[in-house]
Predict the structure of Sec translocon accessory complex subunit YajC.
Amino acid sequence: MSFAVSSVIAQAAPAAAGNPIITFLPLIGLFVVFYFLMIRPQMKRQKEHRTMLAALSKGDEVVTNGGIAGRVEEVGESFLTVEIAPNVKVRVQKGAVSQVLPKGSLKSA
Protein backbone atom coordinates (compact mmCIF):
# COMPACT_ATOMS: atom_id res chain seq x y z
CA MET A 1 0.00 0.00 0.00
CA SER A 2 2.77 2.45 0.79
CA PHE A 3 4.30 1.67 -2.61
CA ALA A 4 1.16 2.94 -4.41
CA VAL A 5 1.11 6.18 -2.40
CA SER A 6 4.77 6.93 -3.07
CA SER A 7 4.31 6.40 -6.82
CA VAL A 8 1.36 8.83 -6.84
CA ILE A 9 3.43 11.44 -5.02
CA ALA A 10 6.29 10.94 -7.46
CA GLN A 11 3.93 11.52 -10.40
CA ALA A 12 2.88 14.99 -9.24
CA ALA A 13 2.65 17.44 -12.11
CA PRO A 14 5.67 19.67 -12.54
CA ALA A 15 5.19 23.44 -12.18
CA ALA A 16 4.09 25.07 -15.41
CA ALA A 17 6.91 27.13 -16.86
CA GLY A 18 4.77 29.19 -19.22
CA ASN A 19 5.28 32.57 -20.75
CA PRO A 20 5.16 35.28 -18.02
CA ILE A 21 3.02 37.56 -20.20
CA ILE A 22 0.35 34.88 -20.52
CA THR A 23 0.51 34.40 -16.75
CA PHE A 24 -0.25 38.09 -16.13
CA LEU A 25 -2.77 38.44 -18.97
CA PRO A 26 -5.86 38.01 -16.73
CA LEU A 27 -4.52 40.66 -14.35
CA ILE A 28 -3.86 43.06 -17.23
CA GLY A 29 -7.35 42.37 -18.61
CA LEU A 30 -8.88 43.11 -15.21
CA PHE A 31 -7.04 46.44 -15.04
CA VAL A 32 -8.28 47.38 -18.52
CA VAL A 33 -11.87 46.58 -17.52
CA PHE A 34 -11.54 48.66 -14.32
CA TYR A 35 -10.08 51.55 -16.31
CA PHE A 36 -12.96 51.71 -18.77
CA LEU A 37 -15.75 51.00 -16.25
CA MET A 38 -14.57 52.99 -13.23
CA ILE A 39 -11.55 55.24 -13.68
CA ARG A 40 -12.28 56.84 -17.04
CA PRO A 41 -15.92 57.85 -16.28
CA GLN A 42 -14.82 59.33 -12.94
CA MET A 43 -12.11 61.39 -14.64
CA LYS A 44 -14.68 62.61 -17.18
CA ARG A 45 -17.07 63.72 -14.39
CA GLN A 46 -14.23 65.54 -12.61
CA LYS A 47 -13.30 67.38 -15.81
CA GLU A 48 -16.93 68.43 -16.40
CA HIS A 49 -17.18 69.68 -12.78
CA ARG A 50 -13.96 71.72 -13.13
CA THR A 51 -15.21 73.36 -16.35
CA MET A 52 -18.58 74.10 -14.71
CA LEU A 53 -16.84 75.79 -11.76
CA ALA A 54 -14.57 77.79 -14.06
CA ALA A 55 -17.61 79.06 -15.99
CA LEU A 56 -19.49 80.33 -12.90
CA SER A 57 -20.37 84.01 -13.06
CA LYS A 58 -22.50 86.55 -11.21
CA GLY A 59 -26.21 85.87 -11.63
CA ASP A 60 -25.94 82.10 -12.09
CA GLU A 61 -28.36 80.02 -10.04
CA VAL A 62 -26.62 77.15 -8.25
CA VAL A 63 -27.23 74.32 -5.81
CA THR A 64 -24.56 73.42 -3.26
CA ASN A 65 -23.66 69.95 -2.01
CA GLY A 66 -25.68 70.71 1.14
CA GLY A 67 -28.81 71.36 -0.94
CA ILE A 68 -28.84 75.14 -0.59
CA ALA A 69 -30.07 76.87 -3.74
CA GLY A 70 -29.26 80.47 -4.49
CA ARG A 71 -27.99 83.08 -6.93
CA VAL A 72 -24.27 83.83 -7.24
CA GLU A 73 -23.49 87.40 -6.13
CA GLU A 74 -19.66 87.36 -6.12
CA VAL A 75 -17.10 85.02 -7.62
CA GLY A 76 -13.69 84.84 -6.00
CA GLU A 77 -10.64 82.67 -6.52
CA SER A 78 -11.87 79.83 -4.31
CA PHE A 79 -15.09 81.16 -2.70
CA LEU A 80 -18.50 82.30 -3.92
CA THR A 81 -21.05 84.55 -2.28
CA VAL A 82 -24.50 83.07 -2.81
CA GLU A 83 -27.72 84.91 -2.02
CA ILE A 84 -30.17 82.31 -0.70
CA ALA A 85 -32.96 84.75 0.26
CA PRO A 86 -33.45 88.51 0.01
CA ASN A 87 -30.55 90.11 1.93
CA VAL A 88 -29.25 86.71 3.12
CA LYS A 89 -25.86 85.84 1.68
CA VAL A 90 -23.54 82.94 2.44
CA ARG A 91 -19.98 82.28 1.36
CA VAL A 92 -19.26 78.79 0.08
CA GLN A 93 -16.27 77.16 -1.52
CA LYS A 94 -16.42 76.80 -5.27
CA GLY A 95 -16.03 73.03 -4.95
CA ALA A 96 -19.24 72.88 -2.90
CA VAL A 97 -21.35 73.79 -5.94
CA SER A 98 -22.93 70.62 -7.25
CA GLN A 99 -24.93 71.97 -10.20
CA VAL A 100 -25.88 75.11 -12.06
CA LEU A 101 -29.61 75.57 -12.52
CA PRO A 102 -31.26 77.07 -15.62
CA LYS A 103 -32.09 80.78 -15.32
CA GLY A 104 -35.39 81.43 -13.57
CA SER A 105 -35.46 78.13 -11.67
CA LEU A 106 -35.45 79.79 -8.26
CA LYS A 107 -38.43 82.03 -9.03
CA SER A 108 -40.56 79.04 -9.98
CA ALA A 109 -39.65 77.14 -6.80
